[in-house]
Write a structure and sequence with these properties.
Layout lengths: L4 H5 L12 H124 L1
Length: 146
Amino acid sequence: MDLTPLDVRYQEFPTAFRGYDKAAVRAYLGQVAEVLEGLVREGEALKERIRALEEENARLKEAEADLKRAVVAAEKIARELKAQAEKEAELIRKEAEAAKEQVLREAAEELKRLRGEIERARQEKALFLSQFKALLQGYLESLERL
């Protein structure tokens, strides 16, 4: 049975011969009612505090779940960025390797071309020297005939 402060405050007792002093009983019941009112108010305040704490707990749990989701998403993004950076680095490395090979091919072709030019220059020099020698030989023979 629930007992409220009003129940205590207005409780009636049957009177009997040489019973209790009604004023003292009323005063005591008033004190009990006040204490009971205080306890009821305190209980209600505690219930409200529990409700507020439960709401805060639920909010914090949701924030924690949001934070966990954000961390998982950040980790996923970090893995994706790392994989993308690795792919880009590999692509850059391959492009650099291809560029190096191209430069080496071009350098080899240029070296081959220059060696060909040097060989032609040597041949032209030899031809020039032999023609010049022949010319000088001809002049020498002409001078000797004179």
